[in-house]
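Quick one, tokens below:
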């Protein structure tokens, strides 16, 4: 933690006081001192990440003092931004923290991964790994309540499994830590096989899922959280024979591929939220001094839904 003076604003700048900051698994990859699919963090710079906050001072005609905004605020209490770097928050969207979850990157990548890759249809079976996480809970809700799919979530505790079925409406949930033979559990919960897989986990979980996919299955690869902390890659199963046999389509997805469609998607997700078709699932940790612990919790699986830090 470091305390510094907030510099004076220049023309076209605004000062934002953070109220909630986001921690996300993708940040782990950006810590590696190696070539990544995005720019890595540099030693000595402020840790990145999205947040929502209030404009407390403005020298920009585009923002007024008191307005709530979303942006890449970084892990800090105050941040300075130029015109166009912040998104104004719709006061009709409640809770406002939805801009970091359902209306943020997790909900947006769920929306695009389903529509663009999985192409869900009513009655078809979708399995989502890390089902109780920020992305997984959005994927399952959209697939179930918007598209009418048979949805199975894979998660890491009985509490989370119960939440997915009792609160979010999943048809079934599997606790992979309790059910040692995941393939048998997948056969029970997906008696007609798996038509779509939204992969947030990788590792042994994905190996088991690929062993139960149907012909022409569609797989969206969004995250590989089981692998991010490994010192060296695991050998793992060989999934290409299954992909070949079933003529499956597997595609990786990054939010950067959909930059020109974000506003439209956010509007659609906001309407579904207002209508009560989707629920916000959040775990909130208080205090900027506790943000590193909240980040680590993502990899031990203690969070339910979107992990946020309240400043």
């Amino acid at each position: 933690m470091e305390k510094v003076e907030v510099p004076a604003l220049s023309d076209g700048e605004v000062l934002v006081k953070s109220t909630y900051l986001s921690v996300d698994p993708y940040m782990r990859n950006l810590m590696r001192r190696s070539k990544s699919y995005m720019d890595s963090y540099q030693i000595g710079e402020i840790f990145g990440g999205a947040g929502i906050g209030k404009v407390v001072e403005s020298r920009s005609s585009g923002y007024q003092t008191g307005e709530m905004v979303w942006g890449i605020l970084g892990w800090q209490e105050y941040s300075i931004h130029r015109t166009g770097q912040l998104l104004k928050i719709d006061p009709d969207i409640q809770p406002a923290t939805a801009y970091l979850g359902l209306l943020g990157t997790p909900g947006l990548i769920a929306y695009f991964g389903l529509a663009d890759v999985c192409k869900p249809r009513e009655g078809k079976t979708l399995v989502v790994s890390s089902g109780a996480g920020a992305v997984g809970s959005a994927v399952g809700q959209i697939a179930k309540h918007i598209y009418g799919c048979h949805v199975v979530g894979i998660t890491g505790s009985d509490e989370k499994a119960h939440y997915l079925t009792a609160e979010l409406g999943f048809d079934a949930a599997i606790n992979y830590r309790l059910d040692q033979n995941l393939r048998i559990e997948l056969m029970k919960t997906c008696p007609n096989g798996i038509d779509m897989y939204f992969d947030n986990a990788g590792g042994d979980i994905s190996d088991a899922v690929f062993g139960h996919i149907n012909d022409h299955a569609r797989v969206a690869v969004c995250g590989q959280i089981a692998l991010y902390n490994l010192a060296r890659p695991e050998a793992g199963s060989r999934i290409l024979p299954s992909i070949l046999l079933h003529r499956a389509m597997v595609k990786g997805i990054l939010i950067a591929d959909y930059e020109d469609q974000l506003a439209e998607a956010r509007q659609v997700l906001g309407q579904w939220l207002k209508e009560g078709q989707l629920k916000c699932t959040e775990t909130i940790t208080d205090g900027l001094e506790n943000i590193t612990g909240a980040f680590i919790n993502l990899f031990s699986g203690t969070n339910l839904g979107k992990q946020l830090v309240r400043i």
